[in-house]
Amino acid sequence: MPKTLTQPVTTLDPVWTRLEDEARAAILAEPVLGGLIHSSILHHPSLERALAYRFSLKLASGEMSEQILREIADEAHAAEPAIGQAARADLMAVFERDPACNRYLQPILFFKGYQAVQAYRIGHWLWTSGRRDMAYFVQARVSEVFGVDIHPAARIGRGIMIDHAHSIVVGETAVVGDNVSMLHSVTLGGTGKEDGDRHPKIGNGVLIGAGAKVLGNIHVGYCSRIAAGSVVLHDIPPCKTVAGVPARVVGEAGCDQPSVTMDQVLPESV
């Protein structure tokens, strides 16, 4: 007699199931963290609810209570399922690309880059819903707590990995595609006081090295690679490597998916 599933296929969530399993194993290995792990993961019925809890816990202050922030996050996830879908893609991106990450549990509990991006997604929902002052509040708290300053109007895709995530700045009209990886101290900024569309557009699959500055309303082609410390002031064609101050093309990207391989070593000839 064939086996039957205990729940409908539409409700299966392998990412959440794995997180629950990892949480139970972590409590057995380190019981003193049982309260943290249970309240953050096992107390909740879904990843969305767990993320809402972490959002409220990390960003609450004397100015805004956990309860209010929790209600805002729950409302955002209920109104926009794409937020939870992007959170899963981001989680898998960190797990696959960061050699320091060997469990899904780590980004949710400990990695400020992942947590900052998920908080940005709530802020972006607030911005697009017309609640701009609350979106600014979320931006300010994310900057204060995580050291990551992403304007809530910026548009960021799925599968984003921000490693270490210290001193990240993403401007108001910036656009970041899917499957992008960036390291600490990256700036996607403007070049002056001009209004309007003034920030970079980053294509899918781009790798941005530590300390790189991409400035102005320029386009970085898909699957390109920006070397650490570079200052990019002009458009970059797809599948190229750029380096220098100001940055120039120094070769091909080196592989089909630089944001996934995370290879930042330039050829000796450069």
TrEMBL record:
<dbReference type="GO" id="GO:0006535">
    <property type="term" value="P:cysteine biosynthetic process from serine"/>
</dbReference>
<dbReference type="GO" id="GO:0005737">
    <property type="term" value="C:cytoplasm"/>
</dbReference>
<dbReference type="InterPro" id="IPR045304">
    <property type="entry name" value="LbH_SAT"/>
</dbReference>
<dbReference type="InterPro" id="IPR011004">
    <property type="entry name" value="Trimer_LpxA-like_sf"/>
</dbReference>
<comment type="similarity">
    <text>Belongs to the transferase hexapeptide repeat family.</text>
</comment>
<dbReference type="InterPro" id="IPR042122">
    <property type="entry name" value="Ser_AcTrfase_N_sf"/>
</dbReference>
<dbReference type="InterPro" id="IPR005881">
    <property type="entry name" value="Ser_O-AcTrfase"/>
</dbReference>
<keyword id="KW-0012">Acyltransferase</keyword>
<protein>
    <recommendedName>
        <fullName>Serine acetyltransferase</fullName>
        <ecNumber>2.3.1.30</ecNumber>
    </recommendedName>
</protein>
<dbReference type="Pfam" id="PF00132">
    <property type="entry name" value="Hexapep"/>
</dbReference>
<dbReference type="Pfam" id="PF06426">
    <property type="entry name" value="SATase_N"/>
</dbReference>
<dbReference type="InterPro" id="IPR018357">
    <property type="entry name" value="Hexapep_transf_CS"/>
</dbReference>
<dbReference type="InterPro" id="IPR053376">
    <property type="entry name" value="Serine_acetyltransferase"/>
</dbReference>
<dbReference type="InterPro" id="IPR010493">
    <property type="entry name" value="Ser_AcTrfase_N"/>
</dbReference>
<comment type="pathway">
    <text>Amino-acid biosynthesis; L-cysteine biosynthesis; L-cysteine from L-serine: step 1/2.</text>
</comment>
<keyword id="KW-0028">Amino-acid biosynthesis</keyword>
<feature type="domain" description="Serine acetyltransferase N-terminal">
    <location>
        <begin position="15"/>
        <end position="119"/>
    </location>
</feature>
<keyword id="KW-0808">Transferase</keyword>
<keyword id="KW-0677">Repeat</keyword>
<dbReference type="InterPro" id="IPR001451">
    <property type="entry name" value="Hexapep"/>
</dbReference>
<dbReference type="GO" id="GO:0009001">
    <property type="term" value="F:serine O-acetyltransferase activity"/>
</dbReference>
